[in-house]
Every structure is written in C-alpha cells, then in structure tokens.
C-alpha cells in the first residue's frame, strides 16, 4: 500500500492524477499548508526536504514530481503511463517533465525568485549542506552502485568554487 | 553515432562524463557561448529551446540533463549507470537528479533570478507559448500514446488562471 502526502493546489496534483490513472492501491494524507504542516517535525520525518508531494512505499519515500511520475508508470505497466520499453521515447518524456519542473515551475513563482535572489548564496550553501549531510549515501551518491547522478552532482558542485571566488572578489 | 552539442563550463559536463563512462560512440560539436552560438538559427534547428546540452541520436534530439543521463544509462546497460531493473531505485536516482536540476541549479544562478523576476509574467507566457506551438504533439503531449507528462502539464497550466487573476487584481 502506498501513502501519498499532498496539499491542495500544488504540483502534487500531477502525481495524484497519475495514481488514479494507474489504478494504484494507495491512501492519502492531506498536508495543511495553511498550518505549515510541511515544516513540522512529523512531516520532516517523511520528507526531510519539507516539500511536497511525497509518496511512501514499502521500500521508502519518494519525492520530486518527475521521479514519482516515472515510478508510478514503471510499477503499473498495464496502465501504459510511459513508453517503458523504448529508451528514446522514455527520454523524450523525461525531457518534457524536466523542462516543466526546472524551467516552467520556477518561472511561475515570483515569490520564490524574490526570496532566492536575496539569499542565493545561503540558498546554494543550504542545498549542498542538505546533500552532504542527508542525501549522499556513499561511496557513491545512491550508495554502492554507481549511477548517472554522480557526474551531475560533480558538475554542479564545481560551481561552488566559482561562487566562492566571486564572493571573495566582491568583498 | 551520437552527436553531443556542448559549451564549456555548463551542466553539459555531466552528460559528457556519462557518455565517456558509457563507452558510447559519439562525436562532439562545441557550442561557442561567447559568440552566442546557442541562439543562432543553425543551433536552433538542433534545439529549439536554444539551450545546452543537446544529444542528437538517430531518432531525434534529446535535451535536458536528467533525460539525457537516463537515456545514456538505458542504452548502455553494460555500463551500469543506473538501476535499470529496479523501479524504486531508479525513481530515487531520478529524484536526486530532479532536485539538482530544479532546485540546486536554479538556486545557483542569481543572474537568472534577477532576469526572471523582472519579467516573470512574460517568462511564463513564453514557456507556454513554446509548449503550445512547438512541444505539444497531440492528441497527447508526447503524441498518440498517453504518458505521465500529461497530468504534469495539466497541473502547471492550471496556474495560468491564478496568474491571470492576480494580473487583473493588480491593475
């Protein structure tokens, strides 16, 4: 049985629709944004990033919409929610979802920009603090098995040197 | 044979590393950011988003780092670049890469924030204009086969109503 954690009117809706379309066996747990429930210790035990949605499975909790969507599709092949046997078509699907989450979603949210612009240095630092303390499993990002997340993390982590250099120059 | 389009010192490096690690047969085409080559008609034929990296395959061009990485992993299973036979582990990998592309990468780039904050409404409009005119295949997002990108797009598109309402209120 899956448990889906979601607030109303967020990108969680996408995963909720997919769960229904997959005919998945799941229960829901509503998260009250008005009461900032996503920042409370009880929810942070579910998702340490304090973000929604989250999908609790027997193996653990999944977060980030594109990943949850791909998981629902892959575990319910009979629902045909993704081209599972065609790597190129699957990559095109992923590319579309990636564009939505990294560009469209971000472009939508001026409040997030304003907040992030003011504290972009702290924000990047906080991201890498979370990665280093909570997300890295070791020896590789995902644990014993090497995966493509490693060069991706390596690439973005390198930028910290540039950020650091520009901080020094601006003093 | 794959063709990899990349500039120096961007997130394209992640895919470049993965191509090497996969032992992929590919050639490279360097994109000159200094000359804004990514905005020129010749490159826009390769990637209409004018962004990098892009990976040209026999089936077509792939963009967006998480999608390119998953594709490289799936088409080179012998390189073991992703847990291809384990949907949960694959989803965890995707979740990590999604966090990198939607949050960490964005948090890194104050210039992008500043530019986007100033014109967030135009930016969202430009995103959906591109989606509607160039990316939607019909009848579903990816063409004839339904896929999980559909509820994702539906969800984010709904926000345009909210944006529109707040524009009217702010007049």
Task: Describe how the helices and strands are arranged.
The structure is a homodimer of 171-residue chains.
Chain A: E1 2-6, H1 12-22, E2 26-30, H2 41-44, E3 54-56, E4 61-63, H3 65-75, H4 87-108, H5 110-118, H6 120-135, H7 149-169
Parallel strand pairs in A: 1-2
Antiparallel strand pairs in A: 1-3, 3-4
Helix pairs in contact in A: 1-3
Report what the structure shows.
Two copies of one chain form a homodimer. Chain A has helices at 12-22, 41-44, 65-75, 87-108, 110-118, 120-135, 149-169; strands at 2-6, 26-30, 54-56, 61-63. With 171 residues, the first copy, chain A, is α+β, with helices and mostly antiparallel strands. In chain A, strands 2-1-3-4 form a four-stranded mixed beta sheet, with helices on one face. In chain A, a hairpin with a 4-residue loop joins strand 3 and strand 4 (61-63). The longest helix of chain A is centred in the middle third of the chain and has 22 residues, at 87-108. The radius of gyration of chain A is 18 Å and the shape is globular. The model of chain A has no long low-confidence stretch (mean pLDDT 83). Chains A and B meet through helix 1, helix 3, helix 4, helix 5 and helix 6 of A and helix 1, helix 3, helix 4, helix 5 and helix 6 of B.
List its salient traits.
homodimer, 171 residues, alpha+beta, 4 strands
């Amino acid at each position: 049985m899956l448990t889906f954690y979601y607030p109303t009117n967020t990108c969680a809706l996408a995963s909720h629709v997919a769960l229904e379309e997959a005919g998945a066996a799941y229960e829901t747990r509503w998260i009250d944004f008005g009461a900032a429930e996503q920042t409370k210790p009880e929810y942070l035990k579910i998702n340490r990033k304090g973000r929604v949605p989250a999908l609790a499975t027997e193996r653990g909790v999944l977060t980030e919409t594109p990943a949850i969507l791909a998981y629902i599709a892959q575990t319910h092949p009979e629902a045909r929610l993704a081209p599972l046997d065609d790597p190129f078509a699957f990559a095109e699907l992923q590319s579309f979802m990636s564009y939505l989450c990294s560009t469209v979603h971000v472009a939508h949210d001026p409040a997030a920009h304003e907040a992030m612009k003011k504290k972009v240095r702290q924000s990047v630092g906080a991201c890498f603090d979370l990665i280093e303390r909570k997300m890295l499993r070791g020896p590789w990002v995902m644990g014993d098995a090497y995966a493509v997340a490693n060069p991706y993390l390596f690439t973005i982590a390198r930028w910290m040197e540039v950020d650091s250099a520009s901080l020094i120059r601006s003093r």
